[in-house]
Amino acid sequence: MGVLARREKGYNLVAIPIRAPESSELFDLRQPVAAGAAAAPALLPEALGDPAFRREHRVRYAYVTGAMANGIASEALVQAGAQAGLLSFFGAAGLSPARVEQAVDRLRGCLGDTPHGFNFIHSPAESALESALCDLYLRKGVRLVEASAFLDLTPAIVRYRLTGLRRAPDGTVEAPNKVVAKVSRVEVAAKFLAPAPEAMRRDLVAAGLLTPQEAELGAEVPMAQDLTVEADSGGHTDNRPLVAMFPAMLALRDRLQAEHRFASAPRVGAAGGIATPEGAAAAFMMGAAYVMTGSINQACVESGTCAKVREMLASAGQADVIMAPAADMFEMGVKVQVLKRGTMFAQRGAKLYEAWRACDSIEAVPPALRASIERDMLKTTLEAAWESTKAYFLQRDPLQVDRAEREPKHKLALVFRSYLGQASRWANAGAPDRVLDYQVWCGPAMGAFNEWAKGSFLEKPAERRVALVARNILYGAAVLTRAHFLRCQGVVLAPESTRVAPRTADELARLLD
Fold first, then answer.
1. CA angle 499-81-464, nearest 5°?
2. CB 3.0–4.6 Å: which of 119, 353, 356, 443 could bond 233 by disulfide?
3. Per residue in 246-256, pLDDT tens?
4. pTM, two decimal places
5. Residue 60 DSSP symbol
6. Distance between CA 134 and CA 139 in Å, rounded?
């Protein structure tokens, strides 16, 4: 029994007994729950989050599957997510423009205009790659990207966002190219929540990459109409807690909206650590317009990694993660969060970074350290590794080779980066002789999901499908939200009455469809 305090005629508070509802009442989301004088309305998963997000992106749920690099967020994953009413992004980072173009064509062929998007990752050492990706997306008519790992705005992402801006008959500015920016720092978020800098817009016009009208209208739209607050996630992360970051980002959005007075204020979503109904419910209750998941999708059968990695992820705990050097921002000292259990990638990557800091060239690497690196990591000599690395960059970005020939320390960095970059591909391909070198991007969310799924059918990697996982998390979040409504009215609920176990696709269909 609980009590509900009700004021009678403005005099006293009278305690009225309340019957706690049965768990079956809470779990039937299509029917309202009544508990004495307390009540909770019907609440289906598609009602969670910001309706404007669902309406603008034409999706059923305010739930996003993030763009895991190297095609881990594969065509199959994006197709499954999009067909289930999720907003799903293809993991284009780390892939060649030609490979990304293949993905664009394949997904357009199977999805048509069903909403989906592609990753647009910041590549500070390879600005030509960013420009090539922008060219590809504009040429192919890709209208939605997830901008991730940006340290600052670049001409490429500004050109993508502003190309095609036009004035609508009602006076508002129409932006055909949409950006969902994923950030973990306030100073970066501020750039995406504001218009593109005037100087950059002017330079793009001078270069013939924007029209004067597009540049002028760019002052009236934010760089991103959606901003994802990325907390303690897999891959690039600052390991920050969502409950501390999210309110600050909301406040920042509100300040910048008051300053710029955009026709529509940018929406703010949440990512990093979201892997259970409780996590999703908490994010929505903080005001998230949508939630984004990552690590847990890599363990699903549609992901672009191998069965061995999915098994490793399914046995991970929350503490089985570690920070390691990032291949794309190696010389800047940037790190990514990866799986620790079952692989030595993080330790070996750290060894390479310390060797690079201490040595100015290949020739300067001490003999004992060189022998260890060549034997355990490169499986060849440093000189031979440079030759294969050189061949790779002659195809991808020849300017890197020119710089390496002038700067021996940069040459050493490229050789070490080749190990870091290949480590994720070995993991995706399931290379049997490279298990200890697997780079598996992973956050503590993976362990949280495994703990929730333990003892259920979702404990097995073969049963994990991206749409089923998403629907379970959203269903549970709706149940917990209704329970919260009742608690706020004085209803005392037994812990077991709100324990939401994973449900099969057939069970969810009976409950929700």
1. 50
2. 443
3. 999 999 999 99
4. 0.92
5. S
6. 8
